[in-house]
Specification:
Largest sheet: 5 strands, mixed
Strand order of the largest sheet: 1-4-7-5-6
Shape: globular
Oligomer: single chain
Radius of gyration: 18 Å
Strand content: 5-15%
């Protein structure tokens, strides 16, 4: 089994943070779950989330248009929270109107969409900085931590976006740093997406090979198709350190997560 994987039939990139070392302790198993979209979950998965993991909260970090198109199933006993890190208008406000018109058009192929997105440089290694430093992004991650602080003993939180790697990955990064994990652990967790989606990414590479894409364009295609690039997260962490002195400084100042609350999270989520 892939490292940190949890068996959730119909749910991609499904894994947990349990077992990671954090400040001399380790994250509790089965409590912090991160995944891709939930719209294709099987009845067995629904049962596992309800009964095995006892999920208390499902946090959906997607845009409203994504959520409307593929709504989350209702897991009995779980609270559904919609905390959009960005909205379509944020992403499209400075792009060619023709690209904006493509969104929601079922006649547009994935490759046509990619070509338009690549031409506008929407997928780039500064992308996560926008997630974390815009007012909407800060509001979403602030609410995420407020929810995490409400997590009850013996219950789990699940958070996701569409592919479970970018907006979800930033949330995992913030949680791991809050719990005292080091940068190496954060990056290891982030890059696991490439292992979980290895077959898909290899297929994308194979199909793109005859097109002769330059390296930067191929990397953008891989990111759009389910992969991650270390520079995206490295740049985001560097930006938080420049702006706030550290990721903890960002938690304190931008997200209003005080040192006492960080200690409370560690007591709640870590074990010896």
């Amino acid at each position: 089994m892939l490292d940190k994987a949890i068996e959730l039939n119909g749910v991609g990139n499904a894994r947990q943070l349990g077992g990671y070392r954090a400040g001399g302790r380790r994250v509790k198993d089965g409590v912090l779950l991160r995944t891709a979209g939930l719209d294709r979950m099987s009845p067995e998965t629904m049962g596992a989330l309800q009964n095995r993991f006892r999920v208390q909260m499902v946090v959906d970090l997607r845009m409203s248009m994504e959520r409307a198109a593929l709504p989350d199933p209702e897991i009995p006993g779980a609270e559904n929270l919609h905390l959009p890190v960005m909205e379509a208008e944020d992403m499209l406000k400075d792009v060619d109107p023709k690209l904006a018109a493509m969104y929601g058009d079922p006649g547009i192929s994935r490759m046509e969409m990619f070509e338009a997105i690549y031409a506008q440089n929407i997928i780039n290694d500064q992308m996560y900085i926008g997630f974390l430093l815009t007012e909407r992004g800060k509001a979403a991650y602030r609410a995420f931590f407020r929810a995490l602080l409400r997590l009850e003993e013996g219950r789990a939180m699940l958070w996701h976006c569409t592919d479970g790697k970018d907006r979800t990955g930033c949330a995992a990064m913030l949680v791991l740093f809050a719990l005292g994990a080091d940068r190496e652990t954060v990056m290891r967790d982030y890059l696991l997406t490439n292992a979980f989606n290895a077959r898909l990414l290899e297929d994308v590479r194979r199909k793109a090979a005859p097109l002769g894409f330059p390296e930067d364009k191929l990397n953008a295609l891989l990111v759009m198709s389910g992969g991650v690039d270390a520079s995206f997260m490295e740049n985001a962490i560097d930006a938080l350190e420049r702006e706030y002195g550290s990721v903890r400084g960002y938690l304190n100042e931008a997200l209003d997560v005080g040192n006492g609350e960080i200690e409370a999270l560690r007591e709640k989520l870590l074990t010896d």
